[in-house]
Amino acid sequence: MSRKILVIDDEPRLANSLTALLRGAGFDVRAAIGGEVGLKALAEEEFDLVITDLRMNDVDGFEIMRNLASQHPKCAIIVITGHASTESAIEAIHQNVHDYIPKPFDFDFLKASVDKVFARLETERLKADMARMFSHDIKVPLTSVIGFADFLVKPDGSAHGNQAEFARKISSNARKILMLLENYLTNARVDEGHLEIQREPVNLSSILSEALRVNEYEFTARSITLEVSITAEAGLEGDEPLLFRAFANILSNAAKYAPERARVWASLSAESHDGQQLAIVRVGNNGISIRQEECDQLFERYRRGRTSRGTGGTGLGLHVVRIVAEAHGGSVRCVSRPEASEIEFEVTLPLGAVK
């Protein structure tokens, strides 16, 4: 995201000093000497953050704040002042000021406040982007569910000859909607600090088999060859719904991004590494070539690869996989093999109880 800052102060030395220091910290900064110049700068271009003095000889900081509230409501504000008072602080709060810093102040203190502003703005931007993607991606399968449900019965009341196929499509798209909702809710639980593992004995081969079953239609509809190898009845104490969600997300991802008539493989094995018994689930597909550095970023929240253009998804699926793996004391990694146009995801889980 852009990191554009406007510094408004009628003390040239302070305004220029702050501008230089913030530029040195990597921000795009413009200085305005005085309130009138500041208002002109705001009329000329958009800024993400305004740092303004409160009392100036021409236009004061309160006028700057009112201008921002009416003309640039998304712009954040930090007030710096050599005339701090309870009244001015209360007025600043009413204007939704992010921070109120009395002069003199340490630059590191101001820098910390600026960093918080941009962290908040980035979070808000990501949430807005995700909400837009989520609303779009849920409409597509929901429209399909409604359409095929309407097709089940002809206008004259008789059953349609393709009922079985329509029912499979309804089920598949309903599961997509459910997966989007569950990924969103899991992510929200993490944000709120409420993700807890419900510990119970689980069989990973059964969970993987069920995840394969619910994605079966997607593979069949796109003529994808599925190769499955389950060589272990691996068990541990974990959260079955969360593990199912992780495996289903990876398989759905493989079905979604693999070209038609591609090959997808899924395997579960028990292996020993450094004296520890591990269950390893590998899911991969061919027909995709991405750089390893991009592959490593796919587990970040709201991150979607360049091959995702035109393909639905909120960018939460693989992030949820990482959350679930780490919550069970394990890990997930992506391996890209550009020379073979292959990509593989590997979930590693320690066998035994969740710590």
Could you characterize what this model shows?
The protein has 355 residues and is α/β, with parallel strands linked by helices. The protein has three domains: 4-105, 3-Layer(aba) Sandwich (Rossmann fold), CATH 3.40.50; 126-191, Helix Hairpins (Orthogonal Bundle), CATH 1.10.287; 200-350, Heat Shock Protein 90. Helices cover 47% and strands 22% of the residues. The protein has eleven helices and twelve strands. The longest helix is centred in the middle third of the chain and has 45 residues, at 107-151. The radius of gyration is 27 Å and the shape is elongated. Mean pLDDT is 81; it is low at 306-314.
Give a short overview.
It is built from eleven helices and twelve strands. It is α/β, with parallel strands linked by helices and 355 residues long.
Which key phrases capture this entry?
five-stranded mixed β-sheet; elongated; Helix Hairpins; 355 residues; 47% helix; Rossmann fold; 12 strands; five-stranded parallel β-sheet; alpha/beta; Heat Shock Protein 90
Question: How are the SSEs placed, and which strands pair?
Answer:
Layout lengths: L3 E6 L2 H13 L3 E6 L1 H10 L4 E5 L7 H11 L4 E6 L4 H9 L4 E4 L4 H45 L11 H29 L8 E4 H11 L1 H6 L3 E6 L4 E4 L1 H18 L5 E11 L2 E11 L5 H4 L21 H11 L3 E7 L4 E9 L5
Parallel strand pairs: 1-2, 1-3, 3-4, 4-5, 7-9
Antiparallel strand pairs: 6-8, 9-10, 10-12, 11-12
Helix pairs in contact: 2-3, 5-6, 6-11, 7-9, 9-11
CATH class of the largest domain: Alpha Beta
Number of domains: 3
The CATH architecture of the largest domain comes to: 2-Layer Sandwich
State the separation between the terminal residues, measured CA to CA.
38 Å
CATH superfamily caption of the largest domain:
Histidine kinase-like ATPase, C-terminal domain
Q: Helicity level, as a percent range?
A: 40-55%
Low-confidence stretches: 306-314
> Which structural class do you get from the secondary structure elements?
alpha/beta
How many DSSP helices?
11
Helix and strand element order:
EHEHEHEHEHHEHHEEHEEHHEE
How big is the Rg?
A: 27 Å
